[in-house]
């Protein structure tokens, strides 16, 4: 079997939510438990940290993995979805799973005669756990796929749990209120396992508190204490600088307002990890925060890919995530108009998936930007022509680019002056196609 054949099997033979949507959603733990038993319970051979939430769980997972690596621990990291390469989903000390390990796992699976029918996510999760165990990792940071209570990853018993925040997303599966969504996310709480919730208020906070009391989970809310001192975003590009008691001043390569909340959550989680016996020095904490991109390969979070024109891609795709991103984007654009050229334009290469409430989300978009409307190369993508109609109905100026993200980006760059700002996003898959195109050109 070649690597391409292994990927073709995974992508075409197994239901994959990120590509086809609801038809691939498979709630419940029965299959995951059966798979785990079949492969010898690999997750029991390493200690884990479980990270859920609506927004920020990917950034938070990568920062925690980077900090553990900086301390010298052999660290696994499991996240989803991937952007340019399937192997991004599972890393050890920042190194993606080798292609030959993917091949050997798929071959083992095909020859096993196993009579179950796992989803793409269930089988690839087991691939990660199996590889982490074989590599002898000390710790693995495991990101929840969707929800929590019924997510495949919830078979683990971690040493600590993190839930970043709650907002509206995947409502058809998780519930039509923030409280219902919070209940699903809180389903990863375990008896005696300490948990950190990044941000919660009102009824959502009550849900977490009740679930923690019911399960015997020691709980802290990171939002009760801001551990960042004088956090601020560099006006020229939106990257984050701050001071802390825990590790002194640092500059994060991650930008955008939402990272303040994520980093504060990480600082609280580091205190929890220390309380359960994980040694983390202040030097490792600072190095982990500052070197998260280099150490883990994190991509697509307020990612600056060019300075002339300033080009930013971001995977934020729901209302809460986009609200923060659009505000920060407008701030950076205003700075460039004041500092470089009053005629600087904001050009938006944008697309969505067809199961989002796009008419509602569109209200968050800047009114006076130039829009290059496209679609990602996944079946879930909203057709560019359909999105154009929505944007035009909201009075936004559009250029239709149905040939794909690379074509839309080329059009935006062709129209741009040096002082302009180009944004690529709206969907994880728009960013994935963009980064793949950039990779192929390099």
Pick out its properties.
17 strands, 17% strand, UDP-N-acetylmuramoyl-L-alanine:D-glutamate ligase, 2 domains, six-stranded mixed β-sheet, Protein-Tyrosine Phosphatase, Chain A, 442 residues, alpha/beta
Tell me what the structure shows.
- The protein has helices at 3-13, 17-20, 30-38, 57-71, 99-111, 120-135, 171-174, 178-185, 202-215, 258-275, 282-290, 292-296, 319-339, 358-362, 384-393, 405-415, 428-441, and strands spanning 47-52, 75-78, 90-92, 95-96, 139-143, 160-163, 195-197, 219-221, 228-233, 239-244, 250-255, 303-307, 310-314, 346-350, 370-373, 397-400, 421-425.
- The protein has 2 domains: 3-296, Mur-like, catalytic domain (UDP-N-acetylmuramoyl-L-alanine:D-glutamate ligase), CATH 3.40.1190; 303-441, Alpha-Beta Complex (Protein-Tyrosine Phosphatase, Chain A).
- With 442 residues, it is an alpha/beta fold.
- Helix 4 (57-71) packs across helix 10 (258-275) and helix 4 crosses helix 11 (282-290).
- It is 42% helix and 17% strand.
- The chain has 17 helices and 17 strands.
- The two termini are 28 Å apart.
- It is globular, with a radius of gyration of 21 Å.
- The strands form 3 sheets. An 8-stranded mixed beta sheet has the order 4-3-2-5-1-6-7-8, with helices on both faces. It has a 6-stranded mixed beta sheet with strand order 12-13-17-14-15-16, with helices on both faces.
